[in-house]
Fold this protein.
Amino acid sequence: MSDVEVLETDVLVVGSGIAGLTFALKAAEGAEVLLLTKKGRVETNTNYAQGGVAAAVAPDDSPALHRRDTLLAGAGLCHARAVEELVREGPDRVRELADWGVRFSRERGSFALGREAGHSRRRILHAADLTGHEIERALLAAVADHPRIRVLEDHFVWELRTGLDPGSWRSRCTGALTLDVDGGSFGAIDARAVLLATGGSGRLYRHTTNPPIATGDGLALGYEAGAAVANLEFVQFHPTAMHPAGSQAFLVSEAVRGEGAVLRTRDGRDFLKGIHPSGSLAPRDVVARAIDDELRRSGEPYVELDVSSVPAARVKERFPTIAAACAERGIEVPAQPIPVVPAAHYQCGGLLTDWDGRTSLRGLFAAGEVACTGVHGANRLASNSLLEAVVYAHRAARRTLQELHDLEIVPSSARVVPSLDDDGADPDEVENGLRDLMWEKVGIVRSDERLAAAREEVSHLAATPLRRGGDGPGAMRAREVAFMTRLASLVVRCALRRRESRGLHYTESHPQRDSERYLRDTVLAA
Ligand code: SIN
């Protein structure tokens, strides 16, 4: 046991994507905010989002239509109230993003609106095909100038601290034990409230569109501290990652299909035509499964996205980044097709929250991909995630400010620096094994047998001591991989519990929907 440096703040925010930054800006209206990020502040999932933000702002659109499309995608598991808040508040929140300096693409003075699968109207606000990057730029600029927000980069949350409220038996989150990744030293932060906005867990899978930071830390941290998680079986695979996908696949936005591009086999067959009335613009789960099926059947390494129906000028104006990435790989769009495969993209479940971002652990809030607000149900509608992040970060910040006077600082009494192993398995090897097994056994098409095998293998990996390679980045790496094995076991547990197929969870062992038994969330509490 030893003492470590202690910082104190009103509100601790973990994560610097759209949810963390929005929350920080709002919470700073009434509190001191300390924002931590484990790498540089721009290394977030948000920064890579191409598609955009869905919101009912067009004259021919309405929150009611947006609600209908969201509920339909969610396959019966969306929480009606959560969706209602999303679609009702959405237009105000996107206008607020524009007020904060986000330069959305415009046409004749109004927001230019794109189309994506499952949307009955054009409602995707975007900044060409770099929407997330533009949002991140504008919000970071607003945060940088703010006198009540302090940002610490290269600071990793090792564990959340919990304690009892003075005079009460109720446990609550009281701050965090942190690792200064550059300096290699531990510290403690005592806070009145904590917001987790750490993003998702795409790195659990061999192929993913997510950057290396997406190791699911927040989910594991929240669960270990006692907060409930839900619906982790619903992992969204994006149908069109560029082949070869590698470990961080380049995404080819669904908006490209929204402009008319068509998925074909390598010999030119429009294989989605007979599968869904919307063809290549069918819901993501349908398209990803159809591609997976086609590739298993044919043995081909990829299918092709035929962009030839989209005029070259339109490609240049709307998809400059995608066109440049294709050109780098020697593919001239729209003349030549883009080779694509599915890749893990988004985690629909997360830390269970109410409509104000409160988790089941008092003082701990969550927003963005790490949270399960009930908006997505069993399948997320495209471009609803950035909207959910901004709407629910706003609501969580408002609620945090209301509750702050009840949440006193509880100084951490014993400050224990964790002991780290110098022996043990190489974290990178364990991670690679985990990603392969999740891809093979807990992927797009599941079965009882493969899930049971995954449970055994994950529990073996989770029990494997991990070697830290030094005090700073090496220690963080070992902890990240420990978080990943913990999280993988939660995903497998959720998947084994749902003995039906619904939305993103498809199992050959139970291919039908069973609403009598499973029209409910899969909730796990520590
Ligand atoms: C995309 O651009 O296809 C991704 C949008 C999303 O995942 O919502």
Summary: The longest helix spans residues 473-497. The chain has three domains: 5-233+348-406, 241-342, 427-524. The chain has a mean pLDDT of 95.
